[in-house]
Design a protein that fits this description.
CATH class of the largest domain: Alpha Beta
CATH architecture of the largest domain: 3-Layer(aba) Sandwich
Distance between the termini: 48 Å
Number of domains: 2
Number of helices: 9
Structural class: alpha/beta
Largest sheet: 7 strands, mixed
Strand content: 25-35%
Shape: globular
Order of helices and strands: EEEEEEHEHEHHEHEHEHEEHH
Length: 281
Amino acid sequence: MNWFQERLYADHSQTLAVERVLHEGRTAFQEVLLFENKTFGKVLVLDGVVQLTERDNHIYHEMLAHVPLQAHGEPREVLIIGGGDGGTLKEVLKHPITKAVMVELDRDVIELSRRFLPDVSGGAFDDRRAEVIVSDGTRYVAETDQMFDAILIDSTDPIGPGEPLFTAAFYADCRRRLRPGGMIAVQSGAPFFQRKELDQVCGRLGKSFGGVRPFLAPVPTYAGGMLALVAAGDTADALTPPEEVLRERYAAIESQTRYYTPAIHRAAFVLPPTFEPKPEA
């Protein structure tokens, strides 16, 4: 039996049994490994770090997409930065939006995901409302004149190709591309191991948004089994509408989610004291 070992942190690693290697190589930007695991199905690894598995990716994708879109209430145009696997795009398209723009830096990640992980995107790339742009997300946000109701940052960790997507300047550019009432959601790594990064994301978003709140999602294949995400908008209260309001909005997509519910939406923002952010100065 071969084993894949993820060494994201200096003093912690996790291993997954490799049943069969589907693809191994390098794109113009990063190392890519795709393999099968008996428990989690197909696994996508970028630069030695697990990005998703067939079995639990829906938890991350649903929470990144549905929390800000349900909180907004009437999203029509949505921007996704990153997300080359198409999972977030799939979740966004479950809403009655008119347009979803996905800007992904690495064309090969899109093509490999379409080939080996078709269930993750579920046909989203072929939806007439989807526009896929292969480009640098920071450049796109800085240069486009399009406006959006929500922006979702579905990126790798703040190292390598994903590092520019975690800066205060990038978040300021995102704010300028949002209509009044617009919201942003970003992934912020494993909070048990990346507490400093969570604080930084909250602090940097706080320079452009009136309300910033981290929330949690349990994803077994991420280190420690817990993922931190951060949502931001005009006010903190806008991110967590009353549950009865969320239930009304949820009716349109209720049969299409496997993890997200209105109750989980609100509960995800209840943090233990050790995860409460201490934004950087």
